């Protein structure tokens, strides 16, 4: 009974604000119920472009974060133990640095870099990373912000697996290092990889400060930009972003659980 009461209170705490927001989007004083705030989203200026941009940035950030974190954490797990605290400090350091300080440093580099590299091949690189159609500089910044969450998720998964024993057994059987990593270690980390991917996705979809100060317009910035003139539409878009995030969470969680349960079914 007490468990049900606690769950009911927690559910009310999270669902009542969402219900109030939904009522605000569909109830128009003097007109009754109207779903215009949702039907006008598809044709809203910048909605599709900003959403696709944020999803593309999220996919690139997930790939880059995992590419950096997975090899480093595996190497630390099978290497000298004294390197683990150093890697942990480096991965959690972005939690100490405020986003406003990070974006100030990025802005300084992007402003002064072309002045000193105008006559070098790197000049075009500075222009390419700031392309509005796909700003790579945001991917780099989001990767830094996501490292603490990716590290925690992957570290928890690696702690539950005897990585040195798996690597030694695989190598003794003649497997190469790529085969050992992709066919022996990573299948045991599917749940952790899915969790890291979801945390990164949620971070990118909700990040506003860095993108806004750098002058780009992903999904979160677009929501804020229309909030002044289209209040109901901005709330409707916020609810839609929550639904998209939850759907992706369920998809990633289901994928990780299904792949993790497959070896157990084979053994049984």
Characterise this structure.
The chain is mainly α and 268 residues long. A two-stranded antiparallel sheet has the order 1-2. The mean pLDDT is 82.
- Looking across the biggest beta sheet, what order are the strands in? 1-2
- Fraction of residues in β-strands: under 5%
Rough outline: globular
The number of helical segments is 13
Give the strand tally: 2
The string of secondary-structure elements, in order, is: HEEHHHHHHHHHHHH
Largest sheet: 2 strands, antiparallel
Query: What percentage of residues falls in helices of 4 or more residues?
Result: over 70%
Structural class of the helices, strands and pairings? mainly alpha
Uncertain segments are none
The pLDDT mean sits at: 82
Radius of gyration from the CA trace?
Answer: 23 Å
Give the end-to-end Cα distance, rounded to a whole number of Å: 36 Å
Features of this protein?
268 residues, two-stranded antiparallel sheet, 13 helices, mainly alpha
């Amino acid at each position: 009974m007490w468990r049900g009461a606690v769950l009911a209170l927690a559910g009310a705490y999270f669902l009542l604000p969402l219900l109030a927001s939904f009522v605000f989007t569909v109830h128009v004083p003097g007109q009754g119920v109207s779903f215009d705030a949702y039907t006008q989203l598809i044709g809203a200026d910048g909605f599709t472009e900003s959403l696709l941009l944020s999803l593309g940035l999220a996919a690139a950030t997930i790939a880059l974060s995992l590419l950096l974190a997975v090899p480093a954490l595996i190497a630390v797990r099978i290497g000298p133990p004294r390197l683990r605290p150093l890697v942990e400090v480096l991965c959690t350091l972005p939690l100490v640095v405020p986003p406003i300080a990070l974006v100030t440093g990025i802005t300084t580099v992007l402003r002064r870099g072309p002045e000193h590299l105008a006559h070098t091949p790197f000049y075009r690189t500075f222009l390419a990373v700031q392309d509005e159609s796909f700003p790579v500089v945001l991917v780099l910044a989001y990767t830094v912000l996501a490292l603490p969450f990716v590290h925690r998720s992957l570290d928890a998964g690696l702690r539950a697996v005897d990585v040195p024993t798996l690597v030694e057994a695989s190598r003794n059987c003649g497997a190469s290092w790529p085969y050992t990593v992709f066919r022996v270690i990573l299948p045991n980390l599917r749940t952790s990889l899915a969790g890291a991917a979801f945390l990164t996705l949620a971070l990118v979809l909700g990040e506003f400060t860095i993108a806004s100060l750098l002058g780009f317009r992903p999904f979160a910035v677009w929501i804020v930009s229309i909030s002044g003139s289209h209040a109901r539409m901005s709330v409707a878009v916020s609810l839609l972003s929550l639904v998209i995030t939850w759907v992706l969470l369920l998809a990633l969680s289901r994928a990780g659980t299904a792949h993790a349960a497959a070896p157990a079914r084979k053994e049984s």
